[in-house]
Amino acid sequence: MAAACGGLTRLLAAAALCVLWAALVDARSPAARVHRHLKRLNKPAVKSIEHAIAYVEGDKYYGAKATINVWEPKIQQPNEFSLSQLWILGGSFWADLNSIEAGWQVSPDLYGDNNTKMFTYWTEYVLGYWPSFLFSYLADSASMIEWGGEVVNSEPDAAHTLTQMGSGQKFPEEGFGKACYFKNIQVVDITNQLKAPKRVGTFTEQSNCYDVQNGNNGDWGTYFYYGGPGKNSNCP
């Protein structure tokens, strides 16, 4: 993983206008497809990685953009992390899944501290402007883009981790100033124009631990609040 830059008060996480993947065909629900993708991308060997995300699929996407609210969530165990990012995806859920990711994270094992850092991650070769052949399924257009949070839950003491997602202490319903958000979510279409995505879905494994709520208005466009404290009375 490549990482650069330190804590920010706001981050514009924009994926490059890229060439991505062939369409995914699957008979299961969108949430099931998202869950399989996220399991496929789990990077450390841990008991579980949990998410609270918004996503789009079913069209061709050539890039993505969002404004991300930046916080400094608390991490319970050094081998755990908490991040907020966007994913641009290509390939098969079962093999050879390609992913380009950008956002911020707190990862004591990776950085040696508990500060928020900007990062990028990719599954093959070097990220930047690249020939399409570098990514086996990043050669035409993406079929899925995701935005949101991810947390490692190593289940210390046989209980859910206290590692926080987003702002950490607050769930999405607390709103502005308390909960973390992505706003002005956009995708790049075939005409190379940024546009609001259609049919935005949401997904979380355990909404009592970390949750997500989306919306739309004139100031923020397509947005969502997300995150949570991890272990609590409803998330033992």
Please give a structural write-up.
There is one protein chain. The chain has helices at residues 30-40, 108-111, and strands at residues 2-3, 10-15, 48-61, 64-69, 82-90, 98-106, 117-122, 142-153, 180-188, 194-195, 201-204, 211-217, 221-227. The protein has 236 residues and is mainly beta. It has a seven-stranded antiparallel sheet with strand order 1-7-6-5-8-3-11. Strands 2, 4, 9, 10, 12 and 13 form a six-stranded antiparallel sheet that branches. The chain starts with a strand and ends in a 9-residue tail after the last strand. Mean pLDDT is 80; it is low at 1-28 and 126-131.
Short description:
This protein has 236 residues and is mainly beta. 6% of the residues lie in helices and 39% in strands.
Can you tag this structure with a few keywords?
2 helices; 39% strand; globular; mainly beta; six-stranded antiparallel β-sheet; seven-stranded antiparallel β-sheet; 6% helix; disordered N terminus; 236 residues
- The largest beta-sheet arranges its strands as 1-7-6-5-8-3-11
Continuous helix count: 2
The run of helices and strands is EEHEEEEHEEEEEEE
The first-to-last residue Cα distance is: 32 Å
Beta-strand content bin = 35-45%
Biggest sheet descriptor: 7 strands, antiparallel
Overall mean pLDDT stands at 80
Uncertain runs with pLDDT below 50, 5 residues or more?
A: 1-28, 126-131
Helix content: under 10%
Overall, the morphology is globular
The class by helix and strand makeup works out as: mainly beta
Q: Rounded to an integer, what's the Rg over CA atoms?
A: 17 Å
Number of strands: 13
By oligomeric state, this entry counts as single chain
